[in-house]
Write a structure and sequence with these properties.
The protein has ten helices and 15 strands. It has 340 residues and is an alpha/beta fold. The chain has two domains: 174 residues, Alpha-Beta Complex (Quinone Oxidoreductase, Chain A, domain 1); 138 residues, NAD(P)-binding Rossmann-like Domain (Rossmann fold, 3-Layer(aba) Sandwich), CATH 3.40.50. Strands 3, 4, 5, 6, 7, 14 and 15 form a seven-stranded mixed sheet that branches. β12, α8 and β13 form a beta-alpha-beta unit. α4 packs across α5. It starts with 18 loop residues before the first strand and ends with a strand.
Length: 340
């Protein structure tokens, strides 16, 4: 499979049972580096399943891999060029083969989860990163759940230790993670204030936010209100601003590394961890990982109607670059899905 270092095959070659269509990048850069190509089909390992991909989610994590940013991440991505040319993490599809040690899934199961190289017709996914697809969701909506929704859940519950009745502020509330965070915070019993741009305020209201702030002219740190928990997804407020908006014993959780520059992408997280031991307020961050237990918890919320994925629109595989350009421009409300 190209995602494990094998060579990309020319799109001009005929179709074969041994190859598949995939979106690849052979160098780092913007959406212009993405190309549709034929690559070797993956082989299933002992503890993984082979999924026929029906849809894959696009998120900022894919953007970082495409760009090779922050530079420190190239130790994993590949120093000079991508080690894993096929992009994509979120996946929803049908199991067509299982490894010898797999016990939880069988051929024909409809699943969703977190893999590697999912912008392709087929992908191998570790058994522990998968769950059965919610019965009330399409493949397209299922595909935009795993990374973003699990990040939101862990940011609120595990890192943020959210309790019912607390006042929560969510920055970047109209994005992939934020759109889930608003709904999950409400489900966990919080009073939610959502921060978004003017054109996206109605979206966050529709997700259940109790209050909305337009960041183009309103400052959440102006002292008008203080919050027990801030889930900062937008990636731009300084640590000082976050602290000004917190209650004396409040918690700020920094998700993602958007502001951290091209070198490490972690400057605010490192600052928060350095300050936190000397402050009454708790400043923290976390690294998300998608596991079956997390997905099953989200499935329960989704099937109960408590959480609904916010799907902006879908793009066929060959238009992945167009979808990436919209994501890069900040035009996406919720998330987009790539359909195969």
């Amino acid at each position: 499979m190209a995602a494990h270092g094998q060579h990309v095959v020319s799109e001009g070659l005929g179709t074969s049972e041994d190859t598949m269509r995939a979106v690849v990048h052979e160098r780092y850069g913007g959406a212009e580096v993405l190309q549709l190509a034929r690559v070797p089909r993956p082989e299933v390992s002992d503890r993984a399943v082979l999924v026929q991909v029906h849809a894959a989610g696009l998120d900022r994590g894919v953007w970082h891999v495409m760009r090779g940013l922050p530079y420190a991440a190239r130790l994993a991505f590949g120093l000079r060029r991508p080690k894993h040319p096929v992009l994509g993490f979120d996946v929803a599809g049908t199991v067509i083969a299982v490894g010898r040690s797999v016990t939880r899934f069988a051929e024909g199961d409809e699943v969703y989860g977190f893999g590697e190289g999912t912008f392709a017709e087929y992908a191998t996914v570790p058994e522990g990163n998968l769950a059965r697809k919610p019965t009330n969701l399409s493949f397209e909506r299922s595909a935009i759940v795993p990374v973003s929704a699990v990040t939101a859940l862990k940011g609120l519950r595990s890192a943020g230790k959210l309790r019912a009745g607390q006042h929560v502020l969510i920055t970047g509330a109209s994005g992939g993670v934020g759109s889930y965070a608003v709904q999950l915070a409400k489900a966990l019993g919080a009073e939610v204030t959502a921060v978004a741009s003017t054109t996206k305020l109605e979206l966050v209201r529709s997700l259940g936010a109790d209050h909305v702030l337009d960041y183009t002219y309103e400052d959440f740190a102006d002292g008008a209100r203080h919050y027990d928990l801030i889930l900062d997804i937008a990636g731009s407020p300084s640590i000082a601003r976050l602290r000004r908006a917190l209650t004396p014993n409040g918690t700020a959780v920094i998700a993602g590394g958007e502001d951290g520059g091209k070198l490490t992408g972690m400057s605010r997280q490192l600052s928060a961890l350095a300050i936190s031991p000397f402050a009454r307020q708790r400043l923290t961050s976390f690294v998300g990982s998608v596991r079956t237990v997390d997905l099953e918890q989200l499935t329960a919320y989704i099937e109960a109607g408590t959480v609904t994925p916010s799907l902006d629109r879908t793009y066929p595989l060959e238009q992945t670059a167009d979808a990436m350009r919209r994501l890069d421009a900040g035009e996406v409300r919720g998330k987009v899905a790539i359909t195969i």
